[in-house]
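Researcher: Quick test of sequence recovery. Tokens follow.
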């Protein structure tokens, strides 16, 4: 197994190479599709059909945006965690989907990235729904871990032979250290997910925003201590800003 860590549109892309197949650890941005195609066909000199599985850790634009398009191009399967309903369901879901795409564009602008069309389906049509502790079909050296909190359906992937864990957005790296993601819809579940990651004693963690890092138990304990006690969501953030404006 060879792990390629590739800078994506706003997140790190993790492409896992085997002798006869490829695995994408998350669904990336829609803007990453052509780059992934070029990397497989030019850098690895392999046919696009070698991409056999794309995992979607959760439904945000930089984790699900390329999944459907890549399946259409390569014939790969899409796998995601087993969760009730669709994340972006109903009127609130439509509005949240739009706001998440706009937030992704905002982050891209801050990174001085070229403007791209980022729209993607808000309802994922997966081929495989994964359960806790299940091994990835066709890639049995990876085990599925449910790590919700950021959303209700976040999953992480534990590479058992090397004891490395892809944790998507469970932890975010910034210049000053490590922080919780935005949003955190389920604070209690989020702290439990951090504890689950800590208990693994992993050799390293693979972050969607921050690359491969090594965190001690003390680092994660501090993250748990600083984690939000109440939900931090889009609507709460808007209400907080409106309140500040009105008070001023």
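Model:
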């Amino acid at each position: 197994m060879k792990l390629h860590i590739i800078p994506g549109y706003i997140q790190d892309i993790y492409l896992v190479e085997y002798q006869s197949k490829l695995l994408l650890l998350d669904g990336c941005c829609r803007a990453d599709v052509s780059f992934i195609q070029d990397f497989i066909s030019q850098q690895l000199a392999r046919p696009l059909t070698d991409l056999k599985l794309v995992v979607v850790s959760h439904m945000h634009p930089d984790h699900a945006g390329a999944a459907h398009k890549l399946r259409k191009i390569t014939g790969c399967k899409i796998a995601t965690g087993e969760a009730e309903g669709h994340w972006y369901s109903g009127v609130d879901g439509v509005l949240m989907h739009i706001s998440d795409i706009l937030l992704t564009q905002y982050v891209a602008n801050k990174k001085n990235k070229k403007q791209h069309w980022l729209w993607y389906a808000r309802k994922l049509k997966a081929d495989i729904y994964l359960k806790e502790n299940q091994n990835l079909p066709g890639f049995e050296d990876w085990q599925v871990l449910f790590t919700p909190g950021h959303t209700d359906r976040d999953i992480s992937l534990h590479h058992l032979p090397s004891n490395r864990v892809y944790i998507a957005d469970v932890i975010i790296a910034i210049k000053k250290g490590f922080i919780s993601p935005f949003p955190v819809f389920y604070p209690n579940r989020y702290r439990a997910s951090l504890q689950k990651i800590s208990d693994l004693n992993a050799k390293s963690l693979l972050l969607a925003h921050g690359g491969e890092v090594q965190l001690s138990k003390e680092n994660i304990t501090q993250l748990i201590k600083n984690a939000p006690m109440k939900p931090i969501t889009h609507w709460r953030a808007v209400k907080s800003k409106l309140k500040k404006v009105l008070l001023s």
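The longest helix spans residues 90-110.
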